[in-house]
Every structure is written in C-alpha cells, then in structure tokens.
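Homework-ish question, so no full write-ups if that breaks the rules, but can someone show me the predicted structure for this set?
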Amino acid sequence: MDTPYDTTLPPHLRSLKEEIEGYARGYGLDFYETIFEVIDAEDLNEIAAYGGFPTRYPHWSFGMSYEELRKGYDYGLSKIYEMVINNDPCYAYLMRSNHTVDQKLVMAHVYGHCDFFKNNAYFGHTNRKMMDEMANHGARIRHYVERFGEDEVEAFLDRCMSIDDLIDVHSTAIRRREPVSRYDFTPEQDDSAETRATRFKSKDYMDDYINPRDLLKKEEEERRKAKEQISRSFPERPEKDVLLFLIENAPLKNWQRDVLEIVRDEAYYFAPQGMTKVANEGWASYWHSTIMTQKAMSPSEVIDFADHHSGTMAVSRGRINPYKLGIELLRDIEHRWNTGKFGKEYEECDDLEKKRKWDKQLGLGRQKIFEVRRIHNDITFIDTFLTPEFCVQHNMFAFAWQEQAGNYFIESRDFEKIKQRLLFSLTNFGKPWIYVVDGNFRNRGELLLKHQHTGVELRLDHAAETLTNLQFLWGRPVHLQTLVEGKPTMLSFDGTEHSTKTGGETDEPKRNPGKTR
Amino acid sequence: MGQKIERDHQRFRKLVRGKVKSNLSKYISRGEMIGKKGNDLVSIPLPQIEMPQFRYGNKGSGGVGQGDGQVGQPLGPGQGEPSSGAGDQPGGHILEVELTMEEMAQILGEELALPRIEPRGKKNIVTTRDKYTGIRQAGPESLRHFKRTFKRALRRQIASQAYDPLIPIVVPIRQDKQYRSWKDVQLPQSVAVLIYMMDVSGSMTDEQKEIVRIEAFWIDTWIKAHYKGVETAYIIHDAAAQEVDEHTFYHTRESGGTKISSAYILADKIISARYPPDQWNIYAFHFSDGDNWSDDTTHCLEILQEKLLPRLNLFGYGQVESPYGSGEFYEYVHELLGDRPNVVCSRIPDREAILGSIKEFLGTGR
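A: Not a homework solution, just the prediction itself:
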C-alpha cells in the first residue's frame, strides 16, 4: 500500500501486540492476521474521514467528515480510540500519542472486532480484499475525473450518494431473482409447459369427455394472460435494491454505471457493520474488558483503564449507546446460560425468589455468546435476548416525538414498547423502506417507487430532493407513493417541477393488488 | 496531513463558501456561530452539507434512551435524536463547548488583538453592598456565628469547671453568643448602554440581518466583559423609527423607504430620557445597507455631530452589502472620521468579513 504515513510498530507495541494476540487466541477468538499501524492524530482523523480506507476515491464529503473530526479533536470534544477495517489481513490503527494502557485496550478491542468480522454470518459475503478494491475504486473514479471533469463526476457522485441507502441488505443471503445480464439477447421462450392446460390421463376414446377441448382452450388462454401480466410488470416483484435496478435498467453512460456500481459495492460492504453495530461493539467491548481485567492489565493501570472503559460505556438519556447495550446484553446472556435462567421451566416459574436464586450451574455462557456472535445481527440479537428484567435493570425507556411541543418526551417504560422502538430504530438502519414498484409506470417509462409505510412519515423536503436525483439517473419522470398526514400521496418529479397528489394510490386501475404488498 | 484529504477538504470548503457553482448550496447548514447564551454554552461553527436521502420525519418517530425520568417528561433539547439505527454517522452537527462569556470575550480579544476598553474616567454609579466582615455581641439569631459561639461556651464551661469530657455537653448562654456584623461597602460601578440601530427597509434581506445578529452578539460579549450592568436598547427604522425588543429587532422585515435621521432622533431621545451621559457609557451601533433619502443625509449628519457624538463613547456604523442599497451613506460617515475620534465605520460585505469588522469596531479601545 502506498501511504505517506510512517506506520512501523515500535518494539514495545510489537511485544504488546504479541501478548494481547496470545490472550485473545487463548480465549478462543479466531481472526485474520491483524496489522496495527501507528499514526498521528491528524492522520487518524484523515483515515477515519475516509471510513478507514486511506485509498478511497476523492469526494468532498470525506473532507466534511474530516473537518468535523478534526474540530472535535482540536477542541477536546471527541477522540477516535480505535479503528479497524474488515479485511484480510485486518488493518487497525493506533494513535501514536496514546498511553500504553490505551494501546492495550484498543488492541484487545480490535481483536474482538476482527473475530466478529471473520465469524459473523452477516459479514460472510463481504470482500476481504476491500483495501485493494477501494484503491481500485479510487483509481477508476480519479480516471473518470481526469476524462470527464471534476464537476461532472462529483455532481454524479453526489446523486449516487444521495440514494446509496436504497439497497437490499438481505439480498446477499437470499437470491430473489436470477441476475440479469446485459449481454443476454436470447429471445424469451414461450415456455409452453407453464401455459399448457392441465390434461388428465385418459384413454383415447374417453379423452373428449375427460379433457373437453373448449375448456382446455379457455384455461390455456387464462394462463397465458396471467403470464403476460407477470412479464409485463417490470420489475416482476417490487425491487428493494433500487441501485441494482438503476444499474440494470437506467439509461446511464458507461462511466456513470461504473460509478453507481462502485457506490453500491461500498454500500454493501459497509452494510453489515451497520446491521451489527450493537452486537459487534458489544462483542469487542466484552473482550477488551475481559482481556484487560483478567490478563493484560498491570495494577498501576487500573484507574486509567476504568476511566476510559467507563467513558466508552457512558449512557445518555436521548440515545442508546451501542457499546453499553451490546456488552450488557452479552454479559446478561452469559449469566443466564451459566445459571440456566432460560427455557420453559424458568419462564414458567412463578416464584420470584426462586427465580432470583436460580442456578443450575450449566456453565454454558461462554459457548452461548460465541454462538450469538456467529449467527446474530442487531435485530435478531435484541429480539431474542432483550428481557423485561434487563430493561428495568438498565433503566431503559422509549421516547416519542410530540408534535405540539416540538420535542421528544418519555413515552413509556413498558418492555413491549421499548423493544418495539428499539427494533424499529434498527430495522433497515432506521431508514424508510423504498421499493421500485414499476419501471414502466403509465406505460410511459416512468419510474414508480413505493414507500412501505411503517408508521412514520417521510421528511418531505428531503424526499423531494432525493426524487430529483433519482429522476436525473432514470431520465424519465419519477414518482413516490407514500402517506402524508395519513393520506395516500404521490410525490412526483418530472425533470422540471415537483408535484404532490393526494388521494387514490395511482390514477391507473390497480393492476395487481397482491403484489405491491 | 495527507494531500488527499487536504484536497477533499479544500473542495468542501469551496462548496460551503459558494465558490464552486453547485446545486448543493441549498443543503448547506452553517451550524451555529452563537450558542445558548444562558447556559454559557458556545457552539463551534461546523458547516455541513446534508445529502438529501429518503428519511423519516419527526412525526411519529421515537427511540430508546437510558436514564431517569417519569413517563411523560420531555427530553432536553438536543437529546433524543432518533438514532438513525446503527449508522456509522456521528450524531449532531454542532459541536458544543462549555465556555463562560468571560472566556469567550477573552478568546475574542486574543484572536483580534483588541485593546481593553477604558471606561470613561468617572466612577459613575455608586452602589452600596453589605459585606459581612466583623463580629458583635448582639444581633438576630439568624446571624449567629455557630462556631465562635460554641467555642466561647466551651471555654467558659472549662474555666468554670462545669465541663465533663465524658459527657461533652456544651450549652451556650446569652453572653457566649456571637453574631456576624456587616459593613456597608461603597462599590463604584461602571455601567454602559448599547444602542443598536438597524435599517429594516425592504432592501435588507435575512442574510444581512444574520450578519448584524452575529456582529451584535460579539460586540455585546466584548462590552459586557468590561462593564457591569450593561443595558441594551434596540431601534429599528425604515422611514420611521421605533424602539423594539431584542426578538423583534432581529426578526422584523419591513418594507419601504429609509430615513436614517429618524433613528438618530429616537436614539437621542432615549439617551436624554434614560441614560444621562454623565452616568452612563454609551455605545451606539448603526447597521444599514447605506441607502438613504438623499435630502435626509445632511439632517442625519447634523444630529450625529451636534447631539449624538458628544455624548457617546463610540459610534459605530456598519454597512452591510445588499443587492439593492446604493451604499452611499458610508461615504458621509467616513468623512467624519478625521475630526471625531469616537466614530468608526466598517463595511461588511459577507460573513467572512464579520471578524474584521468587529476588530474595526472594537479596536479603538474606547
């Protein structure tokens, strides 16, 4: 890698690394080779602004993050402790000015992350050579900048980044449809097997009675019609991966398509980190705390460790700290599976005192949390393991927006409500669900998107601007179905002006009511 | 710093400053230059360009928090960001630093190399304050000096051999009791009044008012660091002038012509009625886009020279640039500069010029 930084690991850190790595392996953590690079705060801010990849493509938004990080650091408001890249080998960055105890803590934390990256199912699909891939992306985009001009490429990137969250994170695990090749020109086969009517076995002389001709014909006709309907709807099913749909179908120039693909690739690469923030940070924190307190820490470092650990774990009223929630949930799981506080027998026990003292000495805790880190993302993690006792113990509450006062207020301390709010905020990264419903809307090549309404309405100013960007990519008018103040509304942008239409869903008879879900 | 981020950062700065033509300009939020004054919080400006994306609005939104609080209790402002899931974006867009106003004024002073303001020689107003300095034998029970009283009681009991260390009971009697006493202290106090005048005629846009707001805030901060008991008066004018409160001052938009003399006459009246110059340090700042009825200008200068200037510590004229104003008034005030030491004028074409203009205003050390 071509970097301007001096990243050699000084001898004392090298021996520390070996020590901590040994502890981590001793506990059964399993990770790719991890490379620590020691850099100054300024460089760390720079790399962090690039999402951890010093070789990333140029864009002003990284400059914006950089300014924020640098100001935060300069004014002593925030400091990046650890940064680790999901790659094989894993790269992790240490700040040169950190004290030894911090370096230990960061290393232990990093090994937790590396183990999670390698073993968690949701990271299974990610490119483990992303460091190189990002450099390739960078080179390609720089090349386009040279050919087509900075303003042109930047403006296009801006539009892509404005919709880079319209991906289908689960498509990496489920194949919803066969990939469409742009170079597949074989004409569509009229697959007669599907349209042919049901024929029953019969002897020749009975055939006219068992399979009456006109009935067969009618059935065949019906089936063909149904099939035509399906093939006429485009996409066949509502498509959540809007970026893919655009890549495959929008009239883009080659370089534009390539840029869009780059943005989509990176979005998919970063998606698992968003999906497992709580579990991942919890896991890493669990391990830094375990390794530090049980192995790595010397007595003189206790205070500094406690100070920094508690800093990471600080809770605020208006926001859940994923580090704190994650580590506490994991510890709770470990405790419950050590003592056997789970399963039917425990759930059905009415005696609170007995429940409190419940201890079957199973000792399954460690094993269980290793299983959790392998198969769970944040949603399943919280859905499965958040208990009412946990919410009470950690003083959790749900808050909601009140329109009149214009602020948030504590809505409830009920377990159900807390869980619902928490899961909602994690579902689809807390972003609205947007599908492509029709790529040939009104048979005029217009693009129809649908916001699957889940109780919270869209921010309209943003929605309108995002539609503008979509329209640019699609080339034809774009529409978005959503609810505004409870009423079905269609927001449209035709390339010159925005319009909003309240009322019926579309001005076209509904073609296929079952499909749009 | 690597070259790469330097480039991206420069690009971002250019976008924010509008030096690059881009359709992003409408998404720029400037962060706040001024924080909450009450809580001594200052926010650091952090310009952001917010990428438009499909996202949830406030209505119906919510989240989960941790901590105390009754159901129904509102969360403080800034708390309760509906966590956009576990995104990797950092939270708020405004950094907040806790600073006292004095610290801020100090930073301002250092940054701009401002001289300290020398209040006018007079020890203007004298206030009386109670200072508890002494002890006496009589007084109200509420002022009883507990420690001294019991010490005396103990001493008396030991002397009279009434004290038994095994049963350490000390009972003060009338003569033991000691009370705090106070002295009236005369405290000289320097007081100042700030009179802000702003042209709110049709040609002043919101952007210009924002400039005035930021400028006035810093002037306020600086002067308050040097005086106790600063009062402010706000005057808005178009063709006529009126005194208003702070909120109105910054939020009114009138239309119509401009007659600057009306504001000066009103300022003169306010000074005569409420702030006699032998007791007050008076600062007046006038912000305008420099457009005036032409036959009014001579009248203005007359009032300024004869009535206002002799009584003011400082008169500042700040001219913001507007697309409509002619800006000629600046020239007239500028001519006064030579004869009158207590006049400053400054042009403020855009936000970038605010700092320089503050320095011009306050650099006189008056």
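Now go work out the reasoning yourself. Hint: The radius of gyration of chain A is 28 Å.
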